[in-house]
């Protein structure tokens, strides 16, 4: 211990703030040496003499002073002193620096610290080398990307040759591998010390954004319906659509793109709404329809490909209980790609749902970064892996996943239509909500939602269904025609139909002006809601013949209108165009081909209307009628022993058409 020196005190050294290592992780001789050093430092700071320190701790006074000055008081990379951490045996405090000239022996040894010495001799070379290693290339111009370790090693060797190291046979040219291992270790340490630049070099811009993205602790979700994630996903499959031909048959048309827009509630992991689209890209209409499904009552579709497709209690939340119909949420998280589309619905989310749109421009989320929307990205991966990618018409996530299959040929031969994809998607989503999740304590999303809803942290907010119908339904500005100048009551043309009402018929002042027309009931456009451009209601408008009898959607009307315009259907006075279209499809000669999609859609709407009136399934009623007809035929053939029964069975009755399973939209 040095003599005649001022002995530092605990307060001067701020010993109370020194950081500790994990003392429980030390074992054996290392643990014994650590506590001996720590005891010696404490004795020194308490004023003990060198003899006392040697006697009690087994360490001399000079060594104790060196441990304190050179190790404990050294500055750590975190900006604080090493403190007690420096007393761990074999812990390197400072990087190794060579004191003697590099001299490689005949066995290749003796080069420790050679690279460090070289860079200390040529600091400018080290600066250029570090810059080269941490450079990811230019973003807006042509440059070399992802240089490997061999590339950096060769560059450094060329620079050293220019400095004459090879001519002097100096390190690294006097070693067997020419310093390759040392240079690679230096590159690794450099990347470890600069993680942000390293992420950009190794993984690209996405890896850098991912590294800089938080872990979510600063934006926690504590309540139900506090945040939802919404995104679009392209289904990995090829499907077909049947188009009627003038000859009476059908032409199959390949559909290469099917998009599904999904909304998932973050806290409970429930899918609360979705929409299947055949467009080239996701549009604002698709987003609005997905939002509308999330805010309205969901009726689980009846599927035609199986009697046992749904799991027990499989559904969407709004289809389980009226308590979950129209629940609003606070935040809607989307990625950058969908954010461009969501700009058009941002105001709708604010006015109808009371939700803030979170996109890359508003903060932490990043364009196409899957880590900012982990739940919906995980769901899409699950939907592909356990859903459409299991079918033979799948294109797979990558072209090589086809494995010799021809998805286009499969779609044509199997006639896997768009309607079947819609049914399969409905089953997959409903079953997902009813499947237990490990992250939800073994409960399914629906069970967890019902459990949390019994003890809500705050009351739910509900959307006004009139507002939902007005702002989330298809709407169009239409010009008012007619008027007293031409001797006709005012009317408008909308979706191939002529609409008017008693209220509109008296508003001659609106002729030549535009009014808003809203198809507030998607499956029944016989009635539409109208209002002026400044929002004054004009009430309901009724469609004129031949569209005024059977309920139908805009898609069905467009298909029927194409038949009428081509002359295949003549909608004369007193007849309904939709009814004529259904009859036309049922009278086709080639019964083996599946029916037209618009026919399936029309039958679905009629079936749902009939079921809502009778309160019974049309499939059950059709089976009962078939059984009754079969019994009547048996009676007519002589199997009935009662003349009265034979007489009753012999009465002519108009048979019902064979039951058809409706497509689901």
UniProtKB/TrEMBL annotation:
<feature type="region of interest" description="Disordered">
    <location>
        <begin position="624"/>
        <end position="665"/>
    </location>
</feature>
<dbReference type="GO" id="GO:0003676">
    <property type="term" value="F:nucleic acid binding"/>
</dbReference>
<feature type="compositionally biased region" description="Polar residues">
    <location>
        <begin position="627"/>
        <end position="643"/>
    </location>
</feature>
<feature type="compositionally biased region" description="Basic and acidic residues">
    <location>
        <begin position="644"/>
        <end position="654"/>
    </location>
</feature>
<dbReference type="InterPro" id="IPR012337">
    <property type="entry name" value="RNaseH-like_sf"/>
</dbReference>
<dbReference type="InterPro" id="IPR036397">
    <property type="entry name" value="RNaseH_sf"/>
</dbReference>
<protein>
    <recommendedName>
        <fullName>Integrase catalytic domain-containing protein</fullName>
    </recommendedName>
</protein>
């Amino acid at each position: 211990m040095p003599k005649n020196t001022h002995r530092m005190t605990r307060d001067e050294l701020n010993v109370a703030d020194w950081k500790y290592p994990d003392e429980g992780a030390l074992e054996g001789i290392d643990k014994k040496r650590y506590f001996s050093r720590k005891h010696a430092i404490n004795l020194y700071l308490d004023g003990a003499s060198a003899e006392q320190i040697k006697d009690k701790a087994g360490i001399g006074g000079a060594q104790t002073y060196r441990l304190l000055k050179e190790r404990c008081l050294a500055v750590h990379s975190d900006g604080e002193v090493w403190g007690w951490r420096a007393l761990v045996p074999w812990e390197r405090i400072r990087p190794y620096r060579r004191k003697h000239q590099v001299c490689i022996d005949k066995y290749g040894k003796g080069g420790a610290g050679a690279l460090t010495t070289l860079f200390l001799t040529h600091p400018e070379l080290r600066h250029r080398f570090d810059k080269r290693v941490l450079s990811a290339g230019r973003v807006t111009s042509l440059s070399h990307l992802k240089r490997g370790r061999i590339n950096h090693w060769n560059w450094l060797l060329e620079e050293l040759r220019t400095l004459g190291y090879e001519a002097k046979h100096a390190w690294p040219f006097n070693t067997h591998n020419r310093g390759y291992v040392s240079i690679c270790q230096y590159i690794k340490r450099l990347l470890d010390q600069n993680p942000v630049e390293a992420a950009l070099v190794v993984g690209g811009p996405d890896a850098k954004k991912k590294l800089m993205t938080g872990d979510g602790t600063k934006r926690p979700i504590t309540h139900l319906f506090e945040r939802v994630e919404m995104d679009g996903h392209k289904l990995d499959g090829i499907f077909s659509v049947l188009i009627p031909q003038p000859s009476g048959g059908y032409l199959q048309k390949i559909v290469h793109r099917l998009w599904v827009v999904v909304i998932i509630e973050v806290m409970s992991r429930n899918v609360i709404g979705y929409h299947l689209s055949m467009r080239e890209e996701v549009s604002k209409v698709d987003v609005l329809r997905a939002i509308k499904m999330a805010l309205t009552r969901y009726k689980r579709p009846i599927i035609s490909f199986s009697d046992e497709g749904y799991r027990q209690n499989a559904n969407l939340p709004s289809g389980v209980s009226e308590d979950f119909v129209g629940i609003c949420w606070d935040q809607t998280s989307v990625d950058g790609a969908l954010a461009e589309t969501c700009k058009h619905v941002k105001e709708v989310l604010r006015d109808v749902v009371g939700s803030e749109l979170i996109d890359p421009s508003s903060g932490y989320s990043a364009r196409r970064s899957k880590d900012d929307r982990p739940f919906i990205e995980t769901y899409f991966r699950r939907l592909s892996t356990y859903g459409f990618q299991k079918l033979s018409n799948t294109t797979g996530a990558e072209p090589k996943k086809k494995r010799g299959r021809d998805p286009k040929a499969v779609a044509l031969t199997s006639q896997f239509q768009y309607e079947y994809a819609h049914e399969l998607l409905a089953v997959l989503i409903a079953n997902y909500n009813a499947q237990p999740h490990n992250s939800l304590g073994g409960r399914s999303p629906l069970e967890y939602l019902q459990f949390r809803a019994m003890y809500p942290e705050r009351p739910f907010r509900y959307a006004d269904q009139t507002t939902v119908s007005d702002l989330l339904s298809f709407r169009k500005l239409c010009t008012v025609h007619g008027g007293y100048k031409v001797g006709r009551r005012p009317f408008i043309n909308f979706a191939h139909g002529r609409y008017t009402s008693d209220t509109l018929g008296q508003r001659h002042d609106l002729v030549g002006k535009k009014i808003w027309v809203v198809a507030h009931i998607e499956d029944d456009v016989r009635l539409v809601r109208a209002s002026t451009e400044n929002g004054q209601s004009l009430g309901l408008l009724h469609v004129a013949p031949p569209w005024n009898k059977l309920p139908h959607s805009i898609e069905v009307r467009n298909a029927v209108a194409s038949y009428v315009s081509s002359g295949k259907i003549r909608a004369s006075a007193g007849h309904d165009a939709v009814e004529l279209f259904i009859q036309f499809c049922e009278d086709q000669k080639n019964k083996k081909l599946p029916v037209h999609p618009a026919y399936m859609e029309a039958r679905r709407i009629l079936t749902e209307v009939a079921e809502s009136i009778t309160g019974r399934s049309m499939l059950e009623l059709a089976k009962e009628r078939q059984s009754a007809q079969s019994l009547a035929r048996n009676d007519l053939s002589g199997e009935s022993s009662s003349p009265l029964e034979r007489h009753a069975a012999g009465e002519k009755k108009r048979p019902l058409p064979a039951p058809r399973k409706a497509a689901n939209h």
